[in-house]
Amino acid sequence: MKLELPDHIRTFIEDSCAENSVVCLRIVLRGSPQKILLDVFIDSAEGITHDNCKNISKALNELSETDDFLSKVSLIEVSSPGADEPLTYIWQYTKHINRTFKCLLSDKSSITGKLIATDEHSITIEEKPLKMKDGKIPVERTIPIQSIEKSTVVLSFK
Fold first, then answer.
1. Pair 70, 107 in one domain
2. Cα–Cα nearest to 77, from 50, 49, 37, 44
3. Residues spanned by the domain of 63
4. Quick check: helix, strand or coil at residue 18?
5. Is 99 in contact with 114 (CB distance < 8 Å)?
6. Which of 70, 72, 82, 97 is most buried by its number of CB atoms within 10 A?
7. CATH number where 40 lies
């Protein structure tokens, strides 16, 4: 049986996020009907604080005292997205200038390189040529946001 989040809970979460000046990126229900786990991923242009997570979690816990669905949830976790979480909004890119990205484009091609600029319509990535010999220099490529299907930060373990 697939777990379904009731619309009133989704609306409550989105309203709680708005009250805390954050955006709800994703809501995940997992587990089984006997042990339901609720994950809420939030973000903002200014970043996420512990208080943001705590306030939204507290509101959900208070609602669980009177709501039939939430009263059956075993665990509620509110957090910022992980580093490997795909970016959803253009403002998320600005927080990652100078980091390496991998973008899957709508034509199914991909591009990997350092994010060097962003505006409301596009991002600019500095691609490294396959071989940096013979005086080749990195190539800057501007990508319209609407042609990005999925974009993630490439984690570096140096």
1. no
2. 37
3. 7-79
4. helix
5. yes
6. 70
7. 3.30.300
How deeply is 64 buried, as exposed, middle or buried, from its count of CB atoms within 10 A (0-12, 13-18, 19+)? Answer: middle
Alpha carbon 142 to chain centroid distance?
22
For residue range 8-20, what is the model confidence (pLDDT) as tens digits?
999 999 999 999 9
Answer whether 47's CB lies under 8 Å from 4's CB: no
Q: Considering Cα of 20, then 23, then 29, then 30, what sign does the dihedral take?
A: negative
Q: What is the pLDDT of residue 141?
A: 92
Sign of CA dihedral 94, 98, 101, 103: positive
pLDDT tens-place string over residues 106-148: 999 999 999 999 999 999 999 876 655 566 677 899 999 999 9
Q: For the residues 63-76, what does the mean pLDDT come to?
A: 95
Q: Which of 140, 91, 87, 84 is nearest to 113 (CA)?
A: 140
Kindly tell me the burial class for residue 11, based on how many C-beta atoms sit within 10 Å of its own C-beta (0-12, 13-18, 19 or more): exposed
The CATH number that applies at residue 141 is 2.30.30.100
Is 158 inside a domain boundary? no
